[in-house]
Design goal:
The complex is a heterodimer of chains A (277) and B (290). By secondary structure, chain A is an all-alpha fold. Chain A has one domain. Chain A has 11 helices and no strands. Chain B has one domain. Chain B is globular and about 60 Å long. Classes of the chains: A mainly alpha (277), B mainly alpha (290). The interface between A and B is large, with 35 and 36 residues.
């Protein structure tokens, strides 16, 4: 291998290594506070219990074994997985909002890393720890309340890339909301609206294929469907056509959101005034 | 975001006999406390309005949040019209009452869900050093602006969709106050756990989420032991389910029960707080309030 290639390899490795180190630190930090995250799992237990009651009652009243292809157990497992995704979100918007308002952003901008890349690594580390804890909690409760569901190895394997895509999309969405802090006094309203859109239009509370037409046709095309519904449905009702369709949607949405986030960040940092002292 | 009351200018009771060191008459003290609460709320509101964009943003954010939840139930009932006798109107009523009560209990008494943090952080010292009722001062020294959006949402939902005749408006108002009292009593009680447990912030947050969750899902979903819990330890039944039943079909005995439970839960919450206050020790924390 030539010395030029070696230098290029080290440069590349060095660049990726920075963010890998941030990811490792974030995981370690969040494991240190795993108890607090586990306590928050109590709320997940309550939510799953309430939705078990809701769906048991709904299926019993309608007298049907399946709704939109979901049996009762599958519906509950779907909800538990979707909520594990939602509750693992570290809310990067809050970090950006605070750093813009407090001026800490100025310290970040002159560091030898990309600010959004740094946030992405930190976000992923926190999300990973929270998701694993929420998934374990949700799985135990689902096993106790509705029992296991058949999960094919292919469903488990293919859900992983969809989950990674969902996390990336949610991170970019949160970033876009947080970056509004460059222009607005308070991003509270936008974050609340964004979180609720992901909850409702992402299919957490009601799978998107149960939405009435023509609303169903609209929400399936929105980016929120790829953030929660995609991986959750792929896990409990695996369908290769659905998997490839969701991969394509995620790829296109990631490209668009990533481009927009980069543009917004550049436009926002031009507004940064740094006062010396 | 919230307000800070500067006690130098407001809330100074001027009751007959106070200058002679005599115990003021009860009605005078009650009037003084009400005046104090009114002035504290006014100041907090004015402070919130100083950051107008933020204030509007928080109120709108909460309105959007509540609207999304209603959208979910509208979608659900479009697909599945009846849930064991409950329809969309019952769920709307439940949400209207809970939102209005939440706005009163958590919005106007902005520190009601911060009690555990304040106790654990030693911030209670400030209130203990002042000649005002400690719990009352603690509760109204801050306002949760976002929760004011809940008041707007609750009343707006009732007036727009739930047949607001003059009698029903009065009933709704009375039930919202009773529900708020139940919610406030519960929040004071769970927040006061910090007197015994120390850092109880995480636990109180989960209990708070729990009572909100139980209050906003239809009552036919809950049976047996869980239903028993909703009548007692986590009194969500009296926050939304009982008021919903009363707005569906008025029953004087039911209203009496609701009012009685409001008094009981609030009294128990206050008693737990003052019981715990005897265990409180100053942490010598210096707090700058400007």
């Amino acid at each position: 291998m030539s010395s030029h290639a070696l230098r290029a390899g080290r440069g590349w490795a060095g660049r990726v290594g920075k963010y890998t180190a941030v990811l490792r630190m974030s995981v370690a930090n969040n494991i240190a506070y795993a108890g607090e995250t586990a306590l928050r799992g109590l709320f997940l237990v309550l939510l799953i219990y309430v939705f078990v009651q809701l769906w048991h009652t709904t299926y019993a009243v309608l007298g049907v074994p399946t709704l939109g292809g979901f049996g009762v157990a599958q519906m509950v497992w779907y909800f538990a997985f979707a909520e594990a995704i939602i509750m693992s979100s570290p809310r990067s918007w809050g970090k950006i909002d605070r750093e813009v308002k407090s001026g800490d952003l100025a310290y970040r901008l002159n560091k030898p890393y990309n600010y959004l890349g740094y946030l992405a690594a930190e976000d992923t580390g926190e999300r990973l720890v929270r998701f694993v804890l929420n998934l374990v909690t949700g799985s135990v409760i689902c096993l106790l309340l509705v029992g296991p569901i058949p999960l094919s190895p292919l469903a488990l394997l293919t859900t992983l890339p969809l989950l990674a895509g969902a996390w990336a999309l949610d991170f970019l969405g949160s970033c876009l909301v947080g970056l509004l802090a460059f222009w607005v006094e308070d991003t509270f309203a936008f974050t609340f609206i964004y979180n609720r859109l992901v909850l409702l239009l992402g299919g957490t509370l009601l799978p998107l294929n149960l939405f009435p037409e023509p609303l169903r046709g609209v929400v399936e095309w929105l980016p929120f469907s790829a953030m929660v519904y995609g991986p959750a449905r792929n896990l409990v009702i695996f369908d290769p056509a659905f998997f490839w369709d969701m991969c394509l949607r995620q790829a296109i949405t990631l490209a668009v959101l990533g481009f927009v986030a980069g543009l917004v960040f550049r436009a926002g940092t031009r507004r940064v005034n740094i006062n010396g002292g | 975001m919230g307000g800070i009351v500067t006690d130098s200018t407001i809330g100074q009771a001027t009751v007959p006999g106070a200058d002679r060191g005599l115990r003021a008459p009860t009605t005078g003290r009650v009037r003084a406390h009400l005046r104090f609460v009114g002035q504290a709320l006014t100041v907090n509101f004015q402070i919130g309005l100083e950051y107008r964009a933020s204030f509007i943003s928080q109120v709108l954010g909460m309105l959007a949040n509540d609207t999304m939840w209603i959208l979910f139930w509208v979608l659900y009932f479009q697909r599945f019209p009846v849930l064991q006798g409950w329809g969309i109107n019952d769920v709307l009523t439940q949400w209207a009452i809970t939102a209005a009560a939440f706005g009163l209990a958590v919005g106007l008494c902005g520190n009601s869900n911060q009690i555990a943090r304040i106790i654990a952080g030693g911030e209670l010292d400030y209130y203990l050093a002042l000649p005002k009722n400690v719990l009352l001062h603690l509760l109204v020294s801050s306002m949760n602006l976002a929760a004011l959006g809940d008041i707007l949402f609750g009343w707006g939902l009732f007036i727009a969709f739930l047949h607001p005749t003059p009698e029903r408006i009065v009933l709704f108002g009375a039930l919202a106050v009773c529900s708020a009292a139940v919610m406030l009593g519960f929040l004071i009680a769970v927040g006061s756990l910090a007197f015994w447990l120390g850092n109880a912030e995480g636990l109180t947050m989960q209990l708070f989420n729990g009572i909100i969750t139980f209050s906003t899902y239809p009552s036919p979903l809950f049976h047996g032991l869980v239903k028993g819990i909703l009548f007692t330890a986590v009194p969500a039944w009296f926050i939304s389910h009982q008021p919903t039943l009363l707005l569906r079909a008025f029953d004087p005995a039911g209203l009496l029960l609701e009012a009685a439970m409001a008094v009981v839960v609030l009294t128990v919450g206050i008693a737990i707080f003052y019981r715990g206050l005897r265990r409180y020790e100053s942490g010598n924390l210096l707090v700058l309030r400007a």
